[in-house]
Amino acid sequence: MGCRDQRETCVIHLGASHPASAGLRWLRRDHKLEQAQRTFLDASVASYTGPMALKADEVYEAGLDLSRAERAVVAHRLLASLHPEQGADQREVDQVWQAEIGSRVDDILNGNVELGNFEETRATARALLDDLRK
């Protein structure tokens, strides 16, 4: 489950059954914590006799090794985990968007909306933004 060499991106998946994991994947680009992570993984998959969880500072340090985009994903997921009742099910979100897309297509086909070209739309948007900035 480790990387073969230091140039390879190492994907480590914490077992979803482990309370500290929340099913997160850590994309590792170096080997500073590889041994500690491997020990943690072995313990979490086999039993709870090994380390129970990575310490917060170890998670933080590992997070700093991620790219900015990867850190944003992890931060968002961790924040969302604090209030799971506020999260929407992806299927529900997809259904709402499908209904909205269908409604917009119907409006276009029935002539209920006036379509403009890109240049006109961009000019209108810029004018609105300029007005807001004043």
TrEMBL record:
It comes from the Bacteria. This is Addiction module protein. It comes from Cryobacterium levicorallinum.
